[in-house]
Amino acid sequence: MDKSWSNQGKDANGDAKDQQLEQFRVNNDGKKMTTNQGIKISNDEDSLKAGVRGPTLMEDFHFREKITHFDHERIPERVVHARGYAAHGEFELYESMQEYTKAGFLQKVGAKTPVFLRFSNVVGSLGSVDTARDVRGFAVKFYTEEGNYDLVGNNIPVFFIQDAIKFPDLIHAVKPEPHNEMPQAASAHDTFWDFVANNQETAHMIMWLMSDRAIPKNYRMIEGFGVHTFRFINEKGKSRFVKFHWKPILGVHSLVWDEAQIIAGKDADFQRRDLWESIENGDFPQYELGIQMIEQEEEFKFDFDILDATKIWPEEIVPVKIIGKMTLNRNVDNVFAETEQVAFHPGNVVPGIDFTNDPLLQGRLFSYLDTQLIRLGGPNFAEIPINRPICPIHNNQRNGFSRQTINVGKVSYHKNSLANNTPSSSSASEGGFVHYEEKVEGRVTRARSKSFDDHFSQARLFWNSMSPPEKQHIINAFSFELGKVKSQSVRQQTVNMFGHVDKEMATIIAINVGVNKPIGEQSNVTASSPALSQENTIKLPQTLKVGVLIGDGFDATEVSNVLKTLTKYGVRYSLIAERLGAIKSKEGVQLMATETYLTTDSVLFDSLYVVGVRADNQAKFNQDILIFINQAFRHYKPIGVATTGLPFFSASNAKLGPGVVVATGNADFGKKFVDAIAQQRFWDRNIY
């Protein structure tokens, strides 16, 4: 595919990063094969032998190099966030933040900064499925003129724990149980819920994990959050507390749990495939960057501690200010070289952005750097092309595994006279990073602030903010997860714990998992935050995918008009038939089927358009269409029914009602169908 468009509209920074990567790109098309030492190869099919049936000779340098390289191709996968996918893009600033921060890339309106975004699942291994119930990583690397800035976040704004010292315990508990290495990429097992019940700071995060947020529809429709509280520092040295938000232009949308499980079997790469294909098709994912700010003197005015990573700043209390937009416009050239080797670190900040005393953040500032050293083979991981800053690098660091820089001169220390004391440090006015001079006092202690003690108020706030369908989904998720827990004691402890969030919710869960009703008092929080409910998200038809169920003998005029309407509103569609290739209308017009009922599935589409009509094997054709219709209807998806499709719809288990648009007698069918597609789910549908 011609990717010349990927450079359009870029500023000098974007071009600089592309040019920097270009020197590392290798295209083998039309080239002669060589060894890694540049020696041309005459035969890559046979090893060197003593006779055609004799032993392989040790002197075969090509065989030894090729096998040795293959034996060492794998690097340790990430302990968490192992399964990931990524893309390149750019960030464009809407509004100058000069009043609040001296960060260079946030100064000039319209300035564009190249970025690299890696999405990921937290729990599963590299070979796990995309659609597991899990937290999604949302890590952005900004290649700024002042150095790399990494905003390493998730699609959920809070975390399980308050102090990083508990992170190994959390991951040990949620990973597959050590005695049998099961289950993979799932939290529905004893050790995880035992951890939850005995570490009640997890309450708020668990409510998010049991919600629809943990099974996103795709990467293009998730929010991103920096999770922690950071600081903005302006030129005058004034500090403000800040949280970061990424708001998807297409809104926040999720899968249905049954749908997510089916997709895991039908297409384990469902979300990464969606990202790849969307960018290849020019449907560039976009996210607006928002910030919440709190003045330094307002640190203690709220009924939550702003440094507590298990708490949000409700948007109704601290509004989100939208300041820019990120567009993903280029897929990676090589997944290993870029997606797997990219090294993020929340300690990679630029002047004007600084840390706070959030104890979870403080631990991450050590852990991420330590992790890269072992994953990427030593201290020179910043020299890997995807990690290289676009600005010059000058320091006295030397040697180590896989060093690429060839340092000239004999001076590698500071201070010195032989090189006129260079490289020298920069003052703040010259752009040197200066940490915020926060006054710190206190006794050395292993303790936690009492302001971190409230674990249930915001969990209750989240519950209060959910729509009735979302609440039912949370109850279903708890019932499924705890239903997989073998220990009755753990099930009872967990039900008792979430009785503090909502007594009625916990009572229903208790009945479903066979334990006693919860004991203890429910939180008395009555407030809600509408921003937390996906019911209030943006709903657009653009980029949504329709499966067109079609056979020979269709009405060419009717179908053509509908497909044109879908295209007009940016809806993607695939023609699904009994076989690939041409399908003929009753008028002799041909359309090309790109999928069959064997190669695709209803769960892989956002909506169906039922056209039907004739096939070589009519009985099987009829049955296949009914399976698609029944599944889409059960997953609350919109269904459009052509004039010829009505007999097929009538034979299914689906019923006329919300989200079902019928063409018969409907002059404006195409537009009404598009409106239904935009709605995406019809929760008031009676599916039983």
From TrEMBL:
Q: What class of enzyme is it?
A: oxidoreductase
UniProt entry tagged with the keyword Iron: yes
* Region Disordered, annotated ranges: 1-37
Assigned EC number: 1.11.1.6
The residue ranges of the Catalase core domain are 34-422
Record Gene3D superfamilies: 1.20.1370.20, 3.40.50.880, Catalase core domain
Reaction(s) the record says it catalyses: 2 H2O2 = O2 + 2 H2O
Q: Could you name the domain of life of the organism this protein comes from?
A: Bacteria
Enumerate the Pfam families for this protein.
Answer: Catalase, Catalase-rel, Catalase_C
Q: Where is the composition biased (Polar residues)?
A: 1-10
The cofactor required is: heme
User: Do the record's keywords include Nucleotide-binding?
Assistant: no
Q: Which UniProt keywords apply?
A: Heme, Hydrogen peroxide, Iron, Metal-binding, Oxidoreductase, Peroxidase
CDD domains listed in its UniProt record: catalase_clade_2, GATase1_catalase
User: What family is this protein classified in?
Assistant: Belongs to the catalase family. HPII subfamily.
Function of the protein: Decomposes hydrogen peroxide into water and oxygen; serves to protect cells from the toxic effects of hydrogen peroxide.
Record-given protein name: Catalase
